[in-house]
Amino acid sequence: MGYGEGACALERKFCRFEAGIDVSEGSEISGYASVFGASDQGGDVVQKGAYGRSLKAMSLDGRRVKMLWQHDPGRPIGVWEEVREDDKGLFVKGRILAEVQAGAEALALIKAGAIEGLSIGYRTIRAEKSAGDARLLHELDLWEVSLVTFPMLPEARIGQGAKADDALAQELIATLQAAKAQLSD
């Protein structure tokens, strides 16, 4: 899947949060958006080091990977404060902004267990086909990491202990219900 056409198209990879991702202190989220060496449902396998050049260039330019809701560039829902590669994959840590309507919705859906996926938006710089028809992704230009409904990589999903702060979640639900009631009037 991608935005645009041809070689410059922005691709997206969906994956579930894995056991290491957690939502804490109401809106902080962390975990792996991509796992190295794991074949996704489309047959792509991200290789260790694939994000390095992109992350370095963004850092030098003072830019950040965007946190979006369902890959919609018009719906940012928070900020990724840490994005880095380690031996396992692409680790992300950030805050969902409850002050943004889509952020409040995302927190409520995560708490309810309805949303458990992360998806990366990127442009392929260098890839090759393996003998088994997999596409080995060696270098990617990372643009965004989204919270999504349908993940592509089974190894990345919300952990068993992931939950939003109950008081904040109840406040968000009340705020959304009040806003909905105002719109109905």
Question: What does this protein structure show overall?
Answer:
One of its GO terms (biological process) is proteolysis. The protein starts with a strand and ends with a helix. Helices cover 22% and strands 41% of the residues. α2 (101-112) crosses α3 (166-184). The radius of gyration is 17 Å and the shape is globular. It has one domain: Serine Protease, Human Cytomegalovirus Protease, Chain A (Alpha-Beta Barrel), CATH 3.20.16. Residues 1-5, 17-21 and 158-169 have low confidence and may be disordered. Strands 1, 2, 3, 4, 5, 6, 7, 8, 9 and 10 form a ten-stranded mixed β-sheet that branches. It is of the alpha+beta class. 37% of the residues are buried. The chain is built from three helices and ten strands; from the N terminus they run βββββαβββαββα.
Task: Please summarize what this structure is.
The chain is of the alpha+beta class.
SSE topology sketch:
Elements: E1 2-3, E2 10-16, E3 22-24, E4 28-35, E5 44-46, H1 52-61, E6 66-69, E7 72-85, E8 89-96, H2 101-112, E9 117-129, E10 135-148, H3 166-184
Parallel strand pairs: 5-10, 6-10
Antiparallel strand pairs: 1-2, 2-9, 3-4, 4-8, 6-7, 7-8, 9-10
Helix pairs in contact: 2-3
